[in-house]
Design goal:
The chain is an alpha/beta fold. It has helices spanning 3-8, 55-64, 79-91, 133-146, 167-177, 204-211, 218-232, 270-283, 288-303, 313-323, 335-341, 361-371, 384-391, 400-408, 425-431, 450-455, 471-483, and strands at residues 14-19, 21-34, 41-54, 68-76, 94-101, 108-113, 119-125, 152-156, 181-185, 199-201, 236-240, 246-249, 254-257, 349-354, 376-382, 415-419, 435-439, 459-463. Helix 8 (270-283) runs antiparallel to helix 9.
Length: 484
């Protein structure tokens, strides 16, 4: 299924985000003189803004993705902590699991920005020492009491003292005992801290740090990811590689996913966006590679924006359309695999088929017309062997792989399914379309699969073709032209 269809089918789930949260204050102004007190510029402030950062940004991305979100963290008993609570509640994030600790300050990053968005200075307020045993126990108590209220757990570790080698493994163990998946964005280079997670997401530096390996090639990445997987007993590892995309370690292989970002303005918060939309896909029971692809597009949206930005599903849909890049390789699929993917599908499926040998404008317009009748367009394609039986030993002109690649590049085609038989009856039987379209002067009663589609309330639609537009006519014209 293409990315946009997956995005449109996202359901609201209950997700708990655990991690270090912080307040990012931005002070904007102009600087035109130097202080007489010291050789430093003076910034004349004209506006400011407050932004939730760290694990809080993960929560905001999940809210933008339409999820039911709660945040678990520790803040100081101070005005900055109160501001954060109010900002969370304004966005719809549940704050019942946040604990106030009067021995700590709320983490704040103050950025002073002059002309042309040039950052002049940053002033931080934080206590990154580990939280006390008393606070950690209170956190675990709340966690145990509320674990069944959530469908998935995200741990976003910024190594600011909230998560340690004692409480984090316990959180994972409790989640596993309740059949809840735990997705972790790691920071600290300690295997034992993340033991038993479902999926671990390091970037290249974090992967290098935790495995004590120098990483210079794809082979290094795979070796290090396998080492991380073995030492943490996690099921999957997703390595984010910036402009080089992502690498997903499955049980038996490493899958590399190319970066889809078109323009990079600001990478701030891109990792938060990735883990947010990856988790949305996983909690919606999407195929893991599909979930990674969704997060890849979400990251593409994020890096095209300045500052932290909560990506929406609509942003991703628009981005995919604008980029005209819908992961065509995922469209070519076997009938059996497609049947599995479509289980539980509620969208209207349109099926059509043909040889599509020497693709021409008649094919194009007929497929466009077919796509209008439903939400998912499945195109069955005769294999090379099938065409030889039907049209003779000299056909096809264009081999099967190239014909399928061409069809999969069309934005309105959802899936391309090859078949070796003379007719697509077996495909139709497996995917059970709502509508079958055929082009030309077919009698609907003669269309293969009519019995199947009508037995479930569907119908056959005959689409008009352009006169004198066929592969045979094109071949005849070429032969005529070159025989003269």
């Amino acid at each position: 299924m293409k990315i946009n269809e997956l995005i449109k089918n996202i359901d609201k789930k209950r997700i708990l985000v655990i991690g270090d949260i912080m307040l990012d204050n931005y002070y904007f102004g102009k600087s035109s003189r130097i202080s007489p007190e010291a050789p430093v510029p003076i910034l004349l402030e004209d506006k400011s803004k407050k932004v939730l950062g760290g694990a809080a940004n993960v929560a905001l991305n999940l809210i933008s993705a339409g999820q039911d979100v709660a945040i678990m963290s520790v803040i100081g008993k101070d005005i900055n902590g109160k501001n954060m609570i109010a900002m969370f509640q304004e966005k719809g994030v549940n704050t019942d699991l946040i604990i106030e600790d009067d021995s700590r300050c709320t983490t704040v990053k103050n950025r002073y920005i002059g002309q042309n968005n040039m950052q002049m200075f940053r002033f931080d307020q934080e206590n990154s020492l580990p939280i006390s045993e008393k606070i950690s126990d209170a956190l675990l108590k709340k966690y145990k009491e509320n674990i069944n209220n959530f469908d998935l757990i995200i741990i976003s570790d910024y190594n600011k003292g909230l998560l340690n080698v004692n409480n984090t493994p316990k959180m994972i163990e409790i989640a596993n005992s309740h059949n809840k998946k735990v997705i972790i964005d790691i920071k600290e280079p300690k295997y034992e801290k993340y033991y038993g997670a479902y999926l671990i997401k390091p970037n290249l530096k974090e992967l290098s740090d935790i495995t004590s390996m120098s990483i210079e090639s794809d082979k290094d990445i795979e070796f290090a990811a396998r080492k991380l997987k073995k030492n943490t007993n996690c099921e999957y590892v997703l390595v984010t590689k910036g402009a080089d995309g992502m690498s997903l370690l499955l049980e038996d292989k490493m899958v590399n996913i190319n970066c889809v970002s078109k323009e990079v303005y600001d990478v701030t918060g891109a990792g938060d966006t990735v883990i947010s939309y990856l988790s949305v896909g996983i909690v919606n029971n999407y195929d893991l590679i599909d979930s990674v692809n969704i997060s890849n597009y979400a990251a593409g949206v994020k890096v095209s924006k300045m500052g932290t930005y909560a990506v929406t599903p609509e942003d991703i849909i628009d981005y995919v359309i604008d980029s005209n890049n819908v992961l065509d390789e995922n469209k070519i699929i076997s009938a059996d695999d497609l049947s599995e993917k479509l289980k539980g599908n509620t969208k209207k499926i349109v099926f059509t088929n043909g040889c599509f040998d020497i693709f021409h404008v008649g094919h194009l317009r007929y497929l466009k017309e077919s796509a209008k009748y439903g939400d998912i367009l499945v195109v069955g394609v005769n294999s090379d062997a099938s065409i030889k039986r039907l049209k003779g030993a000299k056909r096809p002109i264009v081999p099967q792989a190239e014909r399928m690649e061409l069809l999969s590049s069309l934005s309105f085609v959802t899936y391309v399914v090859p078949f070796d038989e003379d007719t697509p009856y077996e495909i139709i039987k497996k995917i059970k379309p709502n509508i079958i379209t055929k082009g030309g002067d077919y009698n609907p009663n003669d269309v293969v699969g009519k019995d199947i589609v009508e037995s479930q309330g569907g119908k056959v639609i005959i689409c008009p073709l352009i006169e004198n537009k066929s592969t045979t006519n094109i071949i005849d014209k070429i032969l005529e032209a070159y025989n003269e």
